[in-house]
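Hey forum,

I'm writing up a methods section and want to include a predicted complex as supplementary material. The small molecule is S-adenosylmethionine. I've pasted the protein sequence and the SMILES. Can someone with a working setup run it? I'll credit the forum in the acknowledgements.
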Amino acid sequence: MVIVDRPIDTKSLSQQRYSQLAQRYVQSATHAAGEDLERLFTMGDPQPEWHVLDVATGGGHTALRFAPHVAHMTVSDFSSSMLAAAEKHLRSQNITNAEYQLADAESLPFPDETYDLVTCRLATHHFPNPFRFVAEAHRVLKRGKYLLIQDHYAPEDAQTAEYLDAFESLRDPSHGRTIPESEWIQGFSQAGFTVVAKETLLKRHDLSSWAKRQDCSDEVICRLDVMLTRGPKAAIQWYQPRSLGSQEASFANPNLIIKGQKHQPVDAM
Ligand SMILES: C[S@@+](CC[C@H](N)C(=O)[O-])C[C@H]1O[C@@H](n2cnc3c(N)ncnc32)[C@H](O)[C@@H]1O
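Reply by user p_vandermeer:
Happy to help. Structure tokens for the complex are below, copy them as they are.
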């Protein structure tokens, strides 16, 4: 796994954009609930004595799902307005076992071997170096404990993946890169995790509300629609668009949930 710095500063752009969109992400139905969040929760298998860290919390929906089932939750994001919105959201839902911490996923401000579970949902495609985050998660996890990531993932064919990244970037210029499953598995292994569970699922998005959450104009929504209408066959097969050219246009984003266990010391195995 080569860690490369990308030439475009998508990190600052993402921080700037999300700071302006905080309330939309608190209110977003697709983030607040769904089969994906339930699968993530089940795979996370939270335990009452656990200390859990949620990275890139956005509106706080993953933290809210896990917090009532664990001893302590650290809720983090690198946008202060997003973090403030998540705090308000969790407090309004009577979550009292959480603390809120500004944190860049690629440079976590937490001590080594602190957490039992690190979660990160629908955010790694923004990180310029997602495997730097995986390495940081490995550092802050106790030995034998778990990293749980959910995000949309890319087809293995690089050309198709590039086309889909262009589609994502048109909607959100702070989009970084979507990673194929094989690269996730390799990256987990190289960081010192054993992949103990993984699942894929489809998350269908209404094109218009998905684009409007990122402030896209009608013109951009039209271009996104055209990209799905005229795109390469493999890209269309990957996203399975429906009702293009209408208000009901939608596409299905394949998501991967991957759970890694930090290696135990040899004498503990
Ligand atoms: C789509 S939202 C996350 C959704 C949320 N995890 C959930 O389950 O609803 C993406 C979040 O990633 C955050 N983010 C992007 N890059 C980050 C980074 N390098 N470090 C920390 N947070 C980051 C953004 O500020 C934004 O709040």
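Some notes you might quote in the supplement: The radius of gyration is 18 Å. The chain has a mean pLDDT of 94.
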